[in-house]
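Table S5 (text form). Sequence records supplied for joint modeling of the two-component complex.
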Amino acid sequence: MQSELKHFWELLWAMTEKELRARYKYTIFGFFWLVANPILQMIVIYFVFSFFMKEPIQNYQYYLFVGLLVWNFFSLSLTKGTPCIVYERSLIKKARFPRAVIPVSIILSNVVHFLLALILFIIPVLFLGTIVPSHIPSIFFGLVLLLTFTSGLTLLTSALNVRFRDVSFFVQALLIIWFYATPIVYSITVIPYKFMWLWRLNPMTSVVQLMQYGFLNAPPPGIGMLSANILTTILIFSLGIMIFRSESKNFDDWL
Amino acid sequence: MDNSIAIKLMNISKVYTIHHEKPTLVEKFIKGKEEHFTALHNINLTIKEGERVGIIGPNGSGKTTLLKIIASITTPTSGKMITNGKVVSLIDLEAGFHPDLSGYQNIFINGMLLGMSKWEIYKKIKYIIQFADIGQFIDTPLFTYSEGMKLRLGFSIAVHSDPDIVILDENLSTGDLDFQYKSMDRIKKLIKEKNVTVVYVSQNIYFLRMLCKKIIWLHNRKIFKVGDTSLLSKYAQCFN
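The corresponding structure-token record, covering 495 residues in total, follows.
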């Protein structure tokens, strides 16, 4: 049992390394693309939205940037993770190994990129002087929530996508709407209270808010929002593991 | 449990859902019913440790499904299976290689997928490369390899993964003659040194006779006959 667990981690790490090595293998700028994308997004959104905002958000560039980093991690993990079992069908047909290493290694490789970009982001924020030491735990809590939610949801969608290939298209469409349903370009305070339940269902709200709070001293998520989001995260995570477990036994039948 | 048993199948059945068109969530909820196809029906089989079993039968008789179940690549719909020891399938040798990574890196990933630990691969990598005979190509990306090189590398990793039960099919005869004999020799060596159990699916009577002692004849998704290699000539007569 113990050696099985050890083998799982070894295999997971080897697959993650593979993901990292293969992704930027033949690109000239490599890792640079990972930071360049959110910077470009940030500049564009900054210019467009600063015309419309009635109440400006403090340090809006930074506010946008941290939200975009989180969002890019989430959406990249989900878009790459959902079809991964179908793409790696040759692995499924090769041997018996814990199938979960395929989607989880994709998420882990994104985690590495995300953390590196986050560390680069901290440097200018330190000069900005918005980091309050007592708020730092909320950053870590946000990261834990983000990882749990992303892996749970990706396990769920990747397992379902084997049988129902529409799932990956559905995810792509959903992500476009989801981006605007998360307080990345705006502050949650502009949302009328009667619509608030929608954001309560969306765990990304708390994740993004916790990060904005930790780095930029923006308002933290309320206790109602936080508990609703945590509950949804736990539900999705358990559902993801359950569905993946039962579906993975018969992946081969559908590939 | 009796230690001398390598593989035991009890009332194994496998039923596939037929999907005529691309299945969609909507279709499932609207139609609600599914069509089924039985690929294996009530298979009972015991293979002892060190036995070399050949499986024969016409196309569509359930040979591949049986192999997949023994290799735990798929799960039976009903019934129970017990295997004793490490099962390694030599079915899809090139599967799981990443074209952009080097031969060296691919050995690690592939070896781990087959259940080897990192340390084990470190110890054996010299022999794996030696047997695969890929020379200076070992640190070039895999897309530069010829088909034969990939096949040899895949085979070399698999036989070095220390299997107790080896699953083979006729794909092994996709390489050139030199590779076919080299691989057959290597499997014979495994049998001699480690007393591995072999399950071999093939239509090649010559190789079957050379390798196997026991023959299982599948017909219409059931076990039709079990016997020794004399079944092979009957089988050949039947289909010629």
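Note: Chain B touches chain A at residues 16-17, 19, 22-25, 28, 68, 71-75, 87-89, 91-92, 95-96, 98, 100-101, 105, 108-109, 112-115, 117-118 (CB under 8 Å).
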